Sequence to fold (250 residues):
Amino acid sequence: MSDGRETRAYPFDVVTLFEPLMSGYLGGSMLGRAADRGIVTVSFTDPRDFTRDVHRTVDDGPFGGGAGMVMQPEPLAAAIESVRERRAPARPRVVLLGPAGRVFDQRVAAEYAALEGGLCLVCGRYEGVDERVAAHVVDEELSIGDYVLTGGELGALVVIDAVSRLLPGVLGNATGAHEESFTGTPLLEHPQYTRPREWRGHAVPEVLLSGNHAAIDRWRQEQRELRTRARRPDLFARWARARDEEDGAG
Ligand code: SAM
Fold:
């Protein structure tokens, strides 16, 4: 029964020369189910469809010399503009994947999940994209980490996956996303165990078998703090600062 509110699918658009690289991943598991259930849509636009020459050229050598090819501005801009026209009056955030962008993390995923108009993810290839597209056509540039990939498609998949699992109805267990690493607090998740109780001489921590939920919650919080301090001192410092500010305010 409807409660009067329309449930709209979260729209992802991807501008890519290599749709087949992405469709296998998007069709499976959680993302495939989210699409089947109308929670997300993913549409593809190929810059080659916006070329004017018989060879459907999308790249050329770099001005100033150097190795490799650069994606030309016109086919890419025309592809992005076609997405904007198709989606109007909605205004998707247009995000170019690139190593020089702001770095993607769980906070950015939450910011994107809240966007009314959804996302248009633009994938570069070759040696990258003519800078005028980054400067004048897209809304922002986004990196998925300090390394260089062959193309933006893996980055687009990372973003679609991380954003989708924050949308209502995508995860089976509604509380799952709230207890995970980086969510709510900057702490990493506590360690998880399942059957058997003992495996190759390694036992599951006794407290998890105790049935004492207060003790389990305490243990899990301690583990989150210990792990984060040992493995990600940067996140631990951020968490400790927020905790101290809260204590100061309280
Ligand atoms: N010449 C560029 C440089 O040194 O910064 C790298 C270009 S890379 C080989 C080709 C494309 O892969 C980029 O245009 C971008 O779309 C994508 N890409 C590579 N690394 C990425 C990263 N860390 N995050 C997001 N996209 C990336």
Notes: The radius of gyration is 22 Å. Residues 97-100, 123-125, 127-129, 143-145, 147-152, 155 surround S-adenosylmethionine (CB under 6 Å). The chain has two domains: 10-164, 185-249.
